[in-house]
Amino acid sequence: MSLLVPLYVHPAEDPGAWHRLIGAAARTYAVVLNPASGPGTAPDPAFAAAARALRAAGARLLGYVDTDYGVRDRARITEEVRRHQDWYAADGCFLDRVTATAEGLSGCRRLVRELRRAGAGTVVLNPGVHPAPGYARLADLTVTFEGHWTTYVSAFTRPPWAVRHPADRFCHLVYGVPEALVPLAVRTAHERGAAVCGPVTGEPPNPWAALSPALTV
């Protein structure tokens, strides 16, 4: 089992969740750090302490950065990735709200190249859907589904181009999963060609405020 874990709750608000995550670090693909919808304007001591403990436990750390579907300036995105590196020793970045269109591919390619040059060792793209062919070759991991469990079981489709890529290049993030069905969600992701997944029981507006039960069983 390889889990991508976006845990969007402050360590001081739910220290138990962070302690459980640290204890389960070996079962994760990576942990997404998101102190303030990004790195924020100054280091957060609680997040820095959690990041140190996660690194010591062997976790890969990814700094959350919003790209706003290609609208945000690349220099601002690169600066936020550098803050994650400087303040939390992030190994790479989780780029959220990535454009999925063929027209946006060249801009995304330039951004990823710039982030690699800035030292991002692992780059995860999250368009939340299957993007146009070509995006999956840019990153280490691409999130090709982010949505509710009911949508995942009833409306998921996999384009032919995705079948030609190895499963360890894809991730499905599914929220609203009934707790008893979390193991099924993990199996379903693997059957649908995603070796990495992140099933959680939470609901909007912040389904990522609690740990996946997959990490606690």
Could you please describe the fold and organization of this structure?
This protein is of the alpha/beta class. It is 32% helix and 21% strand. β2, α2 (45-56) and β3 (61-66) form a beta-alpha-beta unit. The longest helix has 15 residues, at 74-88. The mean pLDDT is 97.
State the gist of this model:
With 217 residues, the protein is an alpha/beta fold.
Characteristics:
217 residues, alpha/beta, 8-stranded parallel β-barrel, 32% helix, globular
Global Rg: 16 Å
Number of strands: 8
Structural category is alpha/beta
Number of helices: 7
Fraction in helix: 25-40%
Low-confidence stretches are none
Q: What is the ordering of alpha helices and beta strands? A: EHEHEHEHEEHHEHE
Please give the order of strands in the largest beta sheet: 1-2-3-4-5-6-7-8
- Fraction of residues in β-strands: 15-25%
- For this structure, the quaternary state is single chain
- Give the overall shape: globular
**Largest beta-sheet details:** 8 strands, parallel, barrel
How far is it from the N-terminal to the C-terminal residue, by CA? 12 Å
Mean pLDDT score, rounded? Answer: 97
